[in-house]
Design goal:
Number of helices of chain B: 0
Helix content of chain A: under 10%
Number of helices of chain A: 0
Distance between the termini of chain B: 35 Å
Radius of gyration of chain A: 13 Å
Order of helices and strands of chain B: EEEEEEEEEEE
Shape of chain A: globular
Distance between the termini of chain A: 38 Å
Order of helices and strands of chain A: EEEEEEEEEEE
Oligomer: heterodimer
Shape of chain B: globular
Radius of gyration of chain B: 13 Å
Largest sheet of chain B: 7 strands, mixed
Number of strands of chain A: 11
Largest sheet of chain A: 6 strands, mixed
Strand content of chain A: over 45%
Number of strands of chain B: 11
Chain lengths: 113, 113
C-alpha cells in the first residue's frame, strides 16, 4: 500500500502561469516532507522541504503547503518557466532514527512556451 | 564538487549473472541509500546504511546485498540477476542525524535479459 501518493501522472501549464503539484500521504507519523525534481538521465535533485510543524515554506518561485488534517501537501511554482519541465517527486520521512524516505510515483510537469 | 558518484552508468546482464553497483560520496555524509526507479512506481528503497558499519533492509531488498565498505562507499550486489531487476538504480546520501535532504547520484540503468 502506497504511503505517499501523487495521483496526477502529468501536468501541462503555460509559461508564466502557476503550476500546482499535489501529494497525499497516509502515515500520520511522517514528520518531514521534501520535493525533488528530476530531469531525464539524471538523479533527483532536492528542491524544497517542510517540517510537519509548519504549514508553509517558501523559496523563491517555489512554495510548499502542508495540510496535516487532510494529509496533503502541494508544491506551487510561480511563475512557471520552460526549464521547470521535469518529473517532480514528493517524499516523506519518518521521525529521526529511521532514516527511511518514502517517495511518491512522480508527476511529469511540462511548461509550454 | 563530485557529490555522489555511481558506476557504471549503464549495464546489460544476462539472467543469472552477478554484478556490483558502486557508489561513493565525498560529502562526509553518515547515511547512504540504494533506490530503484521503475515506471509508475516512483523510487523504492532497497537497502540503506544509517552509519558506517550498519546496513538495513528497505522496502524491496529481495535479490540484493549491500556492503558499507567505509564511510564513503556503499555497494549494491546482485548475486543472480533476474529480468525483474531491470531498473534504474540510484544511490543517495544524507548527513543523517534526523531528516535532511538526500543527495542522489546520476543513476545506473541496468537491463537484465
Amino acid at each position: 500500500d502506497q504511503q505517499v501518493k501523487q495521483n496526477s501522472p502529468s501536468l501541462s501549464v503555460q509559461e508564466g502561469r502557476i503550476s500546482i503539484l499535489n501529494c497525499d500521504y497516509t502515515n500520520s507519523m511522517f514528520d518531514y516532507f521534501l520535493w525533488y525534481k528530476k530531469y531525464p538521465a539524471e538523479g533527483p535533485t532536492f528542491l524544497i522541504s517542510i517540517s510537519s510543524i509548519k504549514d508553509k515554506n517558501e523559496d523563491g518561485r517555489f512554495t510548499v503547503f502542508l495540510n496535516k488534517s487532510a494529509k496533503h501537501l502541494s508544491l506551487h511554482i510561480v511563475p512557471s518557466q520552460p526549464g521547470d519541465s521535469a518529473v517532480y517527486f514528493c517524499a516523506a520521512s519518518l521521525p529521526s532514527g529511521t532514516y527511511k524516505y518514502i517517495f511518491g510515483t512522480g508527476t511529469r510537469l511540462k511548461v509550454l512556451a | 564538487n563530485a557529490g555522489v558518484t555511481q558506476t557504471p552508468k549503464f549495464q546489460v546482464l544476462k539472467t543469472g549473472q552477478s554484478m556490483t553497483l558502486q557508489c561513493a560520496q565525498d560529502m562526509n555524509h553518515n547515511s547512504m541509500y540504494w533506490y530503484r526507479q521503475d515506471p509508475g512506481m516512483g523510487l523504492r528503497l532497497i537497502y540503506y546504511s544509517a552509519s558506517e558499519g550498519t546496513t538495513d533492509k528497505g522496502e524491496v531488498p529481495n535479490g540484493y546485498n549491500v556492503s558499507r565498505l567505509n564511510k564513503r562507499e556503499f555497494s549494491l550486489r546482485l548475486e543472480s540477476a533476474a529480468p525483474s531487476q531491470t531498473s534504474v538504480y540510484f544511490c543517495a546520501s544524507t548527513r543523517g542525524q534526523g531528516a535532511t535532504e538526500a543527495f542522489f547520484g546520476q543513476g545506473t540503468r541496468l537491463t537484465v535479459v
